[in-house]
Design brief:
alpha+beta; 3-stranded antiparallel β-sheet; two-stranded antiparallel ribbon; single chain; elongated; 19% strand; 118 residues; Arc Repressor Mutant, subunit A; 2 domains
Length: 118
């Protein structure tokens, strides 16, 4: 599943993708309503976005009906890893070691975070 160039998306596909990304996820029936399209057109938009690698659909039950929950697929290059950092220290919870709230590594990490705020 490869991500195509977003410029190659139709206007409807671009609008649909923007909506899904903005909300972080949406039920299929709400997607159609928000885009103001019928279910047939909405399904075609979602199928195209899924085929191009922009979204994933998961079967679910919503308002008593079988449907899909639509979520954007995030490009790993867009993730913000700075949230795992305190100064030049990586979170002690990343890795193989057993860490808990009483460990020296955790305390040092928290102190570094606290001092960064000021």
């Amino acid at each position: 599943m490869s991500t195509a160039d977003e410029d190659d998306l139709s206007e409807d596909e671009q609008a649909g993708l923007a909506l899904i990304r903005e909300l972080g996820g949406i039920h299929q029936s709400d997607f159609w309503k928000e885009l103001e399209v019928d279910s047939r057109k909405g399904s075609r938009i979602l199928e195209a976005l899924e085929e191009k690698g922009y979204i994933e659909r998961e079967k679910t039950v919503y308002d008593g009906h079988n449907t899909y929950y639509i979520e954007p697929i995030h490009d790993p290059r867009d993730l913000d890893f700075s949230l795992l950092m305190a100064g030049d220290m990586l979170s002690p919870f990343i890795g193989d070691e057993e860490i808990d709230a009483t460990s020296d590594q955790f305390s040092q990490y928290i102190m570094t975070l606290a001092y960064e705020e000021y």
